[in-house]
Fold these 4 entries.
Entry 1:
Amino acid sequence: MRMTDGELKKYRFPATLSNQTRWFGLYLDELLPTATCLGWGLLTGKQLFGLGAAILSFWAVKRLKKGRGSTWLRDLIYWYMPTAILRGVFHSVPDSCFRQWVK
């Protein structure tokens, strides 16, 4: 059973399976630190410093990812950040210190 062109128009097919949504041209993991720095700079009246911090944070995230996906950065945060900080973020997985390697 084949679908006609009219039936296919109601579905959205991404270019790749790992196609992520972008906000203002940035992926979400790049946007959050950048927007936080920009917002902080605007609220404190230090716009130039906030812009510089936003550029540095964007560059640092891009450098950390090095062409890898956002899931790699999330996994890096899970393994190396303290559990007390991430307790509200990772609900369904155990603390990284209690995980065991599965062969």
Entry 2:
Amino acid sequence: MSTIDFSWVDHATCSERTELPWLRDSAEISPWEAETMRALCDDCPVSDECLAAVDALTVCGGWWAGRDRDRDAQGATLDAWHPLLVGGSERQATLFDLDAIAGAA
């Protein structure tokens, strides 16, 4: 049996965004959260390593490698979602949970 290398985890974008519901049940995730997690995964420097580990472990829950791994999930989406840009470029974008911001107002 081979061992899976998890040294890449410390470099994953999600490791710095612990406020997001990466392991929550898909029914409890808002469309804003889902799209924010997808966008973060798109720019993650270790997304290939993440996908390889998830496939090797046959993970069937949580958000990994840019998508909900729950095979029965409908998938939360938001048609007109766009990240708020900070710093002038999409690469430097900071993503906000707009539902939380609207609720705080």
Entry 3:
Amino acid sequence: MKRLLFTLAFGSLLTGCGDHHQTAQKIIDSPVIGTKEKMGENQPLALDYGQKWKIDQATQNNLVNLQNTVRAFDASEGKTIEDYQEVRLDLADGITKMVTECRMTGPAHEALHHWLKTFMNDVAALKQAKTLTEASDRYKTAKDQLALHTSYFE
């Protein structure tokens, strides 16, 4: 997982700020599969001895930005498949920013990435949507995973 995050962060730095959509597309078009994490591949996300995991301010800010992206998209009307692809790229930008700004370590970091792996895969799945219904369903799955972070992190 550390190798993947290094690759993602390094790749983001190489492309520079002007290519955010391109960088985000590279990350989001490559779902995180087959990585082994210290929390366990198939274990559900759990609290830290009954308490929410503590996250740093940069991560919190990036999660708020992702939530704002979802709120803005939800407020729009007459969504098309192209709109869902655009929000996929916007979410990918947010994920890229969160990954590159991450300075967390230890068990809280592992828990965050356990959650993030699923979120990244859910956002990546939006690319495969061929119908409006399928795009809507896949978006809802990603949105629900994003909302789940408030149950586990503070």
Entry 4:
Amino acid sequence: MRLACSIPRGAVPPVLSNVTPPPRQRASARQIAGGWLLGLTIVAGLVGSVVIGMPALSTPSSTPVQQSQASQGH
């Protein structure tokens, strides 16, 4: 006779598990510096694209309108 169990096969309830996962390996200074460099590069790219794109998004305020000679009938 087999007893019914509500725990799925292969799953161990946390109460019954006495095995702790291994500690995470610390990132080296090179990996930390690489992460910072990547982040700074992305932020600098975004800021640069906004700065370069601002003149294209702004409306001309005091630029004189120049008409060609053809539009004046010459």
